[in-house]
Amino acid sequence: MRHDHLITSKQLSRGDIETVLDRAAEIDADPSAVADRHANTLLGLLFFEPSTRTKMSFETAMKRLGGDVVDMGSVESSSVKKGETLADTVRVIEGYTDALVLRHPKQGAATMASEFVDVPLLNAGDGAGHHPTQTMLDLYTIRENAGLDDLTIGIMGDLKYGRTVHSLAHALTNFETQQHFISPESLQLPREVVYDLHQRQDGTGIKEHESLEGVLPSLDVLYVTRIQRERFPDENEYQKVAGEYQIDAETLEAASDDLTVMHPLPRVDEIAPEIDDTDYAAYFDQAHNGVPVRMALLDLLLSDDRGIRGETDE
Amino acid sequence: MRHDHLITSKQLSRGDIETVLDRAAEIDADPSAVADRHANTLLGLLFFEPSTRTKMSFETAMKRLGGDVVDMGSVESSSVKKGETLADTVRVIEGYTDALVLRHPKQGAATMASEFVDVPLLNAGDGAGHHPTQTMLDLYTIRENAGLDDLTIGIMGDLKYGRTVHSLAHALTNFETQQHFISPESLQLPREVVYDLHQRQDGTGIKEHESLEGVLPSLDVLYVTRIQRERFPDENEYQKVAGEYQIDAETLEAASDDLTVMHPLPRVDEIAPEIDDTDYAAYFDQAHNGVPVRMALLDLLLSDDRGIRGETDE
Amino acid sequence: MRHDHLITSKQLSRGDIETVLDRAAEIDADPSAVADRHANTLLGLLFFEPSTRTKMSFETAMKRLGGDVVDMGSVESSSVKKGETLADTVRVIEGYTDALVLRHPKQGAATMASEFVDVPLLNAGDGAGHHPTQTMLDLYTIRENAGLDDLTIGIMGDLKYGRTVHSLAHALTNFETQQHFISPESLQLPREVVYDLHQRQDGTGIKEHESLEGVLPSLDVLYVTRIQRERFPDENEYQKVAGEYQIDAETLEAASDDLTVMHPLPRVDEIAPEIDDTDYAAYFDQAHNGVPVRMALLDLLLSDDRGIRGETDE
């Protein structure tokens, strides 16, 4: 399989994923080796929804490869306001740049846009759809800390609305992992996601829980996500639920010494600051890994021998 | 004539225009030859009105020449809010950068600003005034597709409010062109523009029409512009007018096979998407031509032998 | 003393200040010598409050050193909106970049943030707190025009709310200066600032006035600041006060021919445009000096032998 665009992590086989993570590890080990590799290359940033972190790390990644970016800016100041279609916008901007990064509120936007352009297009989030570069940096962080095979991972918090979680869970089915999903009943994984995961992996690999307590000691990785206040009509209900899914030093007394705690950030109260300086905490490294991982993706898609091509494609 | 600033396409003689278009063609043919030509050069972007396309293509142009930009950002976040005059703003920012691009809602702003600065200033639109870099990329596209002499061009749509159209029509009087203006009566060219064009060119070169039908077969180029809904108090009136000035495959059955269809973009319904992949369509190329044309203008204004100087100045 | 961050000009001894100003003068004399000195270096811009001038000149400075910037953009589009703490934001972004510039509405923000990061952090204004790079460019301008010792300086306008003025006054106590503070009674220096200055310098060095008239002839430098309309509940009161503290050609008839007039800009009516082209006016140079001074600060903080280290530290 060869991929000229990066639309969803679902498009990637285990071989493709390993190609990307290996390239990211190489770059991480010696960034200076690629500091001028894509000089004179321009990356177009098309963010139809606000994003700081994803945008900044894509911008950093392109600049660390010797290239530069051209940013469309906010939708308020763009031609979109004048009724232009997304197809027209991307066709104009691809004429300026050598690759495009697109974030858009509508699911499927990246797929549609990729059909109109010849330059590589990277999906930086399409509504409730996909956010594959986040998944790749999560996988990279897991591999660095605990390995991707023989992994026991707990994924906790808002599992209903988090596209990050759905993509990660799906990608992990490419590896030999035991996934535990921990959430209040009202924020469980959507049934169709559970069904999809079962199709990909035999059922023993996936378990759902309402409490962290029983499962914590067995975990190699605990991936915590934010529970958003606005999901709850009642403040008391929110406080009760949110409080149960918070991690502090006391919680982690029951964990393995080798546990790795991850979080896609920003966090609010889900992880107490007292964890930040412990060996458990990998969430800032995880955020920083966005740079080498996005450098690897850009490098693969922009090189003469273009595309993401895993050596062990299925 | 030597021009240190680019304020209006009216300042440019036929010789000046050809100098710019020739340089753009050279750059277009081999952009890598100029990829580092203006390294260490900074272009200041002063956009007092929103613009995505013009700003992005100026930014792309400067970066494709090896330089970089410094962007003032939106007026909301600038010192203008604190009551600073435009003269003060440009005098401060010229101290940071090697050239300035200015877009401003007030007609005459670019002329005024240019009197306060020593670095080259390029007008990127001053209200109802001028937008010379748009005109230059239009001329470039026409020359590439149909040539600028012995040209028969139709300019259609909102001819009353479009500064793009007025500048283009004026610039075309430097060449041997037959211009047909096609619009509903309510959106005709302003009488003073018609008068001005007649002064520049003998009357046989300019004709006005309310319908495309009679004139279409004779056209080498059809330049379509957007009719803005907000110009019409009545939605029905808008629908009726707008519908008559839309182009689709059926419309073009009466056209020459060599017809070139242009549009400054963004479009709404003026040109049906079914035209996009035909040989008629030049509007995406036209948008892309903004880069080599702006590179040429920046290169001429930033080189040691500064200024736009046509060889056949009148 | 060695400084890895730049939080306040109060942290800097006379030796530190001279180290910075000397480096700025070197850079100013031959900017091309450092044009590639910090290639592959990325500066993170974190502006939690709007700023055009400070941000643009930091961006210019980093680019003139061969590096580039990554801008967080406005708070509206950032993770701060999602409740992220400043400590988390800076820890994420320091992983992308080699140094950080922070502007924040809360006094003390820069100090707090610097405790969480390993890369150099430069304070670009923390509420009513400090703005040390402005002070350094003011000192640089004074030194270029009048010298920093045996200096008689008048500082006029809104002395109550202007952090620029407080920082400058404090920094000048490192040198042999006579400072005259000229303002309406309602906008006098806060008593604690006066007290602080007296502690630093013997009392003869500091005098307060309600009128410029008596003191003008003795001045080497007159530093004018803006009196903000919104400080006054009554428009008449504002007009009366503001009018008395405006400078025009007639005012300056009583001044020394060598007088240097400065202003941090933007100005409104404080200095008549007729002064702009006289030898008195140094305010545009002052704004432009932001570039070499910020280049010097970045260079000192980013070089292998990191930090600001004055040779004559006390």
From TrEMBL, chains A, B, C:
Carbamoyl phosphate binds at residues 53-54, 103, 131, 134, 265-266. InterPro entries: Asp/Orn_carbamoyltranf_P-bd (IPR006132), Asp/Orn_carbamoylTrfase (IPR006130), Asp/Orn_carbamoylTrfase_sf (IPR036901), Asp_carbamoyltransf (IPR002082), Asp_carbamoyltransf_Asp/Orn-bd (IPR006131). Keywords: Pyrimidine biosynthesis, Transferase. GO terms for biological process: 'de novo' pyrimidine nucleobase biosynthetic process; 'de novo' UMP biosynthetic process; amino acid metabolic process. Pfam families: OTCace (PF00185), OTCace_N (PF02729). Coiled coil: none annotated. It is an enzyme of class 2 (transferase). Residues 5-144 form the Aspartate/ornithine carbamoyltransferase carbamoyl-P binding domain. GO terms for molecular function: amino acid binding; aspartate carbamoyltransferase activity. Catalyzes the condensation of carbamoyl phosphate and aspartate to form carbamoyl aspartate and inorganic phosphate, the committed step in the de novo pyrimidine nucleotide biosynthesis pathway. Belongs to the aspartate/ornithine carbamoyltransferase superfamily. ATCase family. This is Aspartate carbamoyltransferase. It comes from Natrinema pellirubrum (strain DSM 15624 / CIP 106293 / JCM 10476 / NCIMB 786 / 157). The lineage of its organism: Archaea, Methanobacteriati, Methanobacteriota, Stenosarchaea group, Halobacteria.
